Here is the input.
Amino acid sequence: MNMDIIKNAVAEAAKQFGAQEYELTITAKEDTGVEALKKEITAVSYSRSGSMTVRCVVGGKSGYASSELVTPEAAAEIVETACGNALVLDEADQVGLFPGSDRYETSRDTAITLPGADELKERALKLQELAYAADPRVIDGTQSFVSGMNIVQDVMNSAGLQLHYETGLVYQGLMAAVRDGEEAADEFCLTDVSRKTTEYTVDKAVSGALGKLGADTVPSGKYNIIMDSATVCSLMETYATVFSARSAYLKTTLLSGREGELVASEALTLVDDPFHPEKFGHCPFDGEGVAVYAKNVIEKGRLNTLLYNRMYASLLGRQTTGNASSATGIEPKGLYIAPGGLSNDELLEKLGDGLYLTSLQGLHAGANVQSGDFSLQADGYLVRDGKKAAPIKNFTVADNFYQLLNKVTAVSSELKFGVGSDYGAPEVLFTGVAVSGK
Amino acid sequence: MLDKKTMSELIAIVLHGGADFAEVYAEYTKDNRIGYADRKIETVANKIISGVGIRGFLGTRTYFASTTDLTPSGLRECARRVAQAVGNPVDRIADFSLVERINPNIHPIAINPFDVSAGVRCGLIREAADAAWAAGDEIIQVNGTLLTSDKSFTVANSEGLYTSDRQIRTRMMLTAIGSDGSRNEQGIASPGSQMGLEFFDIARHAPKAIGAEAARQALVNLKAVPCPSGQMTVAIASGFGGVIFHEACGHSLEASCVAIGMSQMCGKLGQPVAGSKVTAVDDGTIANGWGSCNIDDEGNPNRRRVLIENGILKSYLVDRLGERRMGLPHTASARRQSYAFETTSRMSNTFIESGPDTNEEIIASIDDGIFCASMGGGSVNPFTGDFNFAAREAYRVRNGKICEPVRGAALIGNGGDVIRKIDMVGQDLQTAQGNCGASSGMIPADVGQPMIRVSSITVGGQA
Here is the structure.
């Protein structure tokens, strides 16, 4: 589809249905992947999809509509729908469409030539071969996959905004299943092919699964704990709205009105950096077209700033921080805990005796974003004398996110971002966390 | 929607690639989402989901492609992608001829949401929110969403099937937030159905009732004390309490994990796997049920599946790929979020049947434990059976009496172990609505049960 045809269709329909202003976002995606099981390819997939979203401003109010059908007819239909949706809103927009920032960082991201099926198959089978060769306890059920994707996005509006962004990624995953007698365990490892080898991916998954064999629960009590970086990231992602100006405006975060105050331990510095080299995706603009930039959200325990889009910046008398997910939504663009001075091993030594957590499950249900309370199933290792001594499972870790910010005692130097994720963390040591086991 | 001729052509392309089975799934869905926050309608957004998913099998291998390009060349390119992936080209293919099958519709719709103005739909969520605001000064915020969708799809395959279904769903999700000045707590009510807006004419789903329920739960949680932790006897109320069976057992019965040996329920057909009072059913035929469909996403007429009968495992949940892998007949359990996902075996409306005990007997039997009046979601590792789920509203039980509310209760355990410990089953079967996530995306799924007692389970709390 010629994009100019779509743009013209939207412009004409906007005029026809009474939109004073409009914005159009067109996204094209391409995905390809293979899966393998029992050393054989079991599935091959490919998808090509498009979508367009319009925001139409009628009487100062914005209505939205989108379509995966990217045709001139569908464009006219969604403009009409969006204009109708605008009319039923209670209030006019706080801010109009954004004409563009003075300058944007140059992103080196680009769409990639996706690997062919043969290359994907070869890598998926290599993951299988290496997994089975790694240990005799690796069993059938061990699954591997390799996928590639490209995303291309164009944004334009009637205020003059015109932006383009594209990126691509190839990633591989292994779910290693192991059995020793009656006992079974599994572990998943996902890596970016351009950053980690097949061997690394297999070693992480297989050693992780084997490490879980023989796991027992732990006595209930208060423990000092280390969370590995993936576990910290999962918790940060769950509670990201705590740092949102939208939540502050709606009074649904306890950080509302606390900018400038100490809200965390001095050991904690929290950064939002859209261009951190370790993270995937460096889009130079946010969901409103505002240029994004790095900022300290928490600096040595002090809340420096919440995350703003233009609407909530206007309502709260601030400037946007380039964190719009949309005109009404806010999201981090690369939120990570700043690394400290200790290696991961030195952090374990500092812990001495306690627990090392490798996962928290049920975050979507067991973490209350209003109160900050969480009570979550966890896995990991018992730590004695600064060494991982035995695997542990089937226990819960319970605390409060706001209080946990003050329980950060030390942070390791080894920062990691999840694959395709906007969240990163080193390993973090917390003190005095409630654990329920036996 | 694609006609027979187009679908036949696409199927033939895949068969020419060497597949022994080919299927085309074409979808057109309209979604509408009305967002409410801070005493106003914040957003109204519509979405058209439209595309085609094409799949081929060769033995137990699957080949899949999807596209939103519905031009003749775009569709042929999508089919050719599948054929190329199969990579076993043949000159001749088996004859097939698509014959349309019309399915009886057991989910009548009275008021299609898309025939009603956005203003009227906005009024429904305002009414619910107003009821929540009116519950007390402690309510500091109310937000919510009214979701409506109208999904149509046609599926055709190389066995000659050509059939369609239409599913209209309505759901309101309302969150009320209470505060005592130092702590915020929330209450959630989120009923839905495969119905139109007539859903809100049912008294317990009236917008005012939804708002009042969300606010009531928030106010209860404000008074709650930290939940104790340890091994306890737990009573779980009817309705969304059924998430315990969904997580602890249901996922482990799906062919997607059983067929590859990644479920603790492998090889256990005919064996006792649960307490003898437990009969569990997955029924996709409940009229207007949230998780019901006239046909599954492979076009098979839906059915009622008895999974566990008096504690004995009777059936897995099997789709067409599972059928090939396991040598068991499919159970019409294939589901997908949309054309862009390959189908897999999933639950529909899954519940524990009513049993012999009364709620009073169950509570009276607990000397020191927890009563979970309302559950949140959970998750499971089907391979190990380890699962967790969280209570939204819970109370301490002492000497057979329900006492103070507690907050932050999580229940964890091993599915195979916990369902054997269901030793009392009540009589007030109710279902509740959820969204279930797996490899074929997010799908609407009902969970349900009467009140049950689990004799011992790990409760995690802060106290």
